[in-house]
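can u do me a favor
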């Protein structure tokens, strides 16, 4: 029987089980043995991280050839124009190549938002906008680089969905175990 863990990763937690410098890691939250992260989520990002003890499932989730889609809630600085959003939809040229087209829409503040520690740094005279961005690849820090490329840097990034799995019903810092 294989296990899949849906973990709602807090800000600042590394997507690995140990760190020689003592930073928070998955081992501070996940006590299940023999599971490994299927993909990654950088320490400055929050939200869904999948862990499994099934190598085949891990490969299917993480490997770019499977193009498993991922949806992010992204708070950006500024108010992107329709032309800027269209650039994201068509693909953005980054240092490591052009991104695949993304699904992008402006959204209201997400319904299951938690307080972040430390809080976001807001600037009084600059508006913020929430976007929902769905991609089917995983270049390093891709969503952050995409929003920066259109002149709207990311202030907060929450991965809401990978494939058909979401963080619905999972508090930040908590996880759900699925045995199959």
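np, heres the sequence
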């Amino acid at each position: 029987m294989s296990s899949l863990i849906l973990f709602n990763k807090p800000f600042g937690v590394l997507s690995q089980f140990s760190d020689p410098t003592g930073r928070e890691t998955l081992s501070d939250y996940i006590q299940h043995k023999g599971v490994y992260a299927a993909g990654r989520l950088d320490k400055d990002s929050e939200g869904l991280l999948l862990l499994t003890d099934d190598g085949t499932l891990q490969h299917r989730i993480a490997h770019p050839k499977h193009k498993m889609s991922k949806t992010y809630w992204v708070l950006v600085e500024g108010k992107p124009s329709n032309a800027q959003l269209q650039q994201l939809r068509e693909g953005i040229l980054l240092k490591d190549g052009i991104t695949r087209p993304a699904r992008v829409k402006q959204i209201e503040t997400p319904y299951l938002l938690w307080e972040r520690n430390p809080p976001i740094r807001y600037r009084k005279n600059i508006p913020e906008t929430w976007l929902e961005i769905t991609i089917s690849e995983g270049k390093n820090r891709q969503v952050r680089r995409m929003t920066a490329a259109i002149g709207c840097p990311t202030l907060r990034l929450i991965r809401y969905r990978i494939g058909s799995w979401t963080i619905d019903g999972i508090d930040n810092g908590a996880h759900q175990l699925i045995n199959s």
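Residues 82-90 form the longest helix (9 residues). hope that helps!!
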